[in-house]
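ok so heres the complex, two chains, lmk if somethin looks off
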Amino acid sequence: MATIGVLIDDMFEDVEYTSPVEAFKKAGYKIINIGLKEGKPVKGKKKGTLVKIDNAVKNVSVNDFDALLIPGGCSPDHLRSYKEPVDFVKDYFNTGKPLFAICHAPQILITAQLIEGRRITGWRSIIQDIKNAGAEFVNQPVVEDDNIISSRGPQDIPLFIKACLKRLESI
Amino acid sequence: MATIGVLIDDMFEDVEYTSPVEAFKKAGYKIINIGLKEGKPVKGKKKGTLVKIDNAVKNVSVNDFDALLIPGGCSPDHLRSYKEPVDFVKDYFNTGKPLFAICHAPQILITAQLIEGRRITGWRSIIQDIKNAGAEFVNQPVVEDDNIISSRGPQDIPLFIKACLKRLESI
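and the predicted structre for the whole thing:
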């Protein structure tokens, strides 16, 4: 079965981690949490969910993963202030493998300069940033553009999971 | 003495509120906290500082203020997902009166589409957003461009306060 990397840091939007990860595990996929520091527990923003980082992003290879999930909250903004996660996302993205981005996740794609000319959605506060990055903001629950599957936020989770699982079945 | 509005919401960077506000009060300026809901206590991100919103942003006029401070943290991103604070910042900005922006504060200026062609600084995670908005990102502790005084984050607070106080003396 495929392995899904989850790129995450403190203050992630709890349900944008817990719900997709639960669904992916139930479907038999392996989850590897990647972040700034191996072994560090990172904490959710609203419910305080603790997630242990399995591997530091600087020590992983894009070849380790068949898909990448980036939950939202403040986590993407934290991550994008460091070089390693931004470089990893860039390298991963360029493989063309599926990238599942929800809520504030496009922030790290913007810093990595990856969304110009793409159709994408995300949390309403970052709409102008998405547009300024040269992407088309699409106000829909799920937007699929080549390897990017994106959703706006917690309200879209069921449809986001459905689209991600469908994509995972095809790889 | 002049009146300074402070535009703020939950998860603000504590010291980016407490330090400038303490200095401004000590210098004799009046502070009015404005936010989404009058009377609501908003909470700092790291130290849990509680700040009571004096006036809802929808009920204030740009004429009520001689200067505007926007602290960072997650507060600017929260605020910019609502129409009223974005409209207020736009209206205030167009008066040409001083705007003190630190850390993540440029996020709301980006959503209000106010920084194209301007020189500005801010927190390192939003550098690409600042550039994509058509502004020049300047990696300095304090950047003054016409009515905008901006700083990068907590490390710049002493110089930020000094520049803000100097500007307040001249109005």
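quick notes: The mean pLDDT of chain A is 98. thats all i got rn
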